[in-house]
C-alpha cells in the first residue's frame, strides 16, 4: 500500500520534526516536510542498494523517512563545521 501525497506530507513533516529533535537541529514546518520527504527517498535508495526490504505502509514510511532525515541532518552538520 503506497501512501498518497497528503500522507507523504504529513508523515514527512513528522519524520523531519522527529529527526530535528533527535539530531538537535531545529527547522520550520516547511523544512521539516522537505527533509522528511527527501530523507525518505535517500533512505529508500540506500536500503534498496543493500537489498533491505522497505515496508510500504505508513509506519514503514515514517521509519524510513526518519532514518533518511537523520542521515541528511548528519551530513548538514558535517558540512557546517
UniProtKB/TrEMBL annotation:
Keyword set for this entry? Cell membrane, Membrane, Transmembrane, Transmembrane helix
**What is one GO cellular-component annotation here?**
plasma membrane
A Pfam family cross-referenced in the UniProt record is: Transgly_assoc
Q: Which stretches are transmembrane? A: 6-22, 29-47, 59-79
Q: Which membrane topology term applies here?
A: Multi-pass membrane protein
**Can you say where in the cell this protein is located?**
Cell membrane
Question: Has the keyword Signal been applied to this entry?
Answer: no
Q: What family is this protein classified in?
A: Belongs to the UPF0410 family.
Instruction: Name the chain's protein.
Output: Putative membrane protein YeaQ/YmgE (Transglycosylase-associated protein family)
Q: Which organism is it from?
A: Gellertiella hungarica
Amino acid at each position: 500500500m503506497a501512501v498518497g501525497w497528503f500522507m507523504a506530507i504529513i508523515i514527512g513533516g513528522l519524520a523531519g520534526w522527529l529527526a530535528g529533535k533527535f539530531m538537535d537541529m531545529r527547522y520550520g514546518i516547511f523544512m521539516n516536510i522537505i527533509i522528511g520527504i527527501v530523507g525518505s527517498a535517500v533512505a529508500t535508495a540506500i536500503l534498496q542498494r543493500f537489498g533491505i526490504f522497505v515496508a510500504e505502509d505508513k509506519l514503514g514510511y515514517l521509519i524510513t523517512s526518519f532514518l533518511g532525515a537523520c542521515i541528511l541532518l548528519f551530513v548538514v552538520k558535517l558540512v557546517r563545521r
